[in-house]
Every structure is written in C-alpha cells, then in structure tokens.
C-alpha cells in the first residue's frame, strides 16, 4: 500500500485526524501510511457560512467527516441524499461520472476522495448561478 502523498507549500496547514499541522519554510511532502486517516487541506476547507449553495453544502458534509465534526455513519445518508439532489441538475455525462465517483467513495469510506470529486463541480455550479443572474 502506497498511502496518500500530500505536497505542502511553505506554511501551508493541513488537518490530519483532528490535529492541525503547519509546514515550515520550505515545500514538503507528507506520506500518510495509515489507512482511513482523515486529511483536509485548510486552504480547501469550506467554512459554514460559505456552504451556501447545493454543491458547497454537499462538500461541507463530506468535509465534516474529515474534520472529525461528524462520523461517517452520521453523514452517509444525508451526503448520499445531497448527491442525489445535485444529480437532478447536473445531468451531463461528465458530471454524472463525478457524482458516481463521489457516491462510490462515500460507500467505501473514502471521504477525502469523495470531497475531491465533489469539488470538481464547484466551477460548474458557479457558471450555472452566473448564467442565471441577469
């Protein structure tokens, strides 16, 4: 098993199993060997007040498991329900593939990969909202 490799910029912070870790003055790589470790880059974190769109709220749910604020068991059903609701809007083949990947990763307990997939929909959602606004 190779594990997860995270490359960090100088002074970048990452949340690892509930502990905030800050990199030093140089770029660095962390190799996380523990299976099912909860990892979240703080620069990618969505704050509660930013969870104001369907995709952002769904990402926030996945993030809650990584931050340790909720367990996978508590979040699984609401998260899968949110993905199902999003799938009613994102009907193109590529978005469906992303949503299927996110669902599969959730069912496998890999919330980091699910969040990573869901974040791919953020620019698409922003374009939809921009096109809707006169």
Report on the structure:
It is a single chain. This protein is an alpha+beta fold. The chain has two domains: 4-43, no CATH class; 46-132. The protein has five helices and five strands; from the N terminus they run βββββααααα. The strands form two sheets. A three-stranded antiparallel sheet has the order 3-2-5, covered by helices on one side. It has a two-stranded antiparallel sheet with strand order 1-4. The longest helix is centred in the middle third of the chain and has 16 residues, at 72-87. The radius of gyration is 16 Å and the shape is globular. The mean pLDDT is 91.
Features:
single chain; 134 residues; alpha+beta; 2 domains; two-stranded antiparallel ribbon; 5 strands
Global outline: globular
- In percent terms, what proportion of residues is strand? 15-25%
Separation, N- and C-terminal Cα atoms? 51 Å
- Computed over alpha carbons, the radius of gyration is 16 Å
What would you say about this model in short?
By secondary structure, the chain is an alpha+beta fold. The protein contains five helices and five strands; from the N terminus they run βββββααααα.
Secondary-structure map with pairings?
Blueprint (H helix, E strand, L loop, with lengths): L3 E5 L4 E4 L2 E4 L5 E5 L6 E3 L12 H14 L4 H16 L5 H16 L2 H9 L2 H11 L2
Antiparallel strand pairs: 1-4, 2-3, 2-5
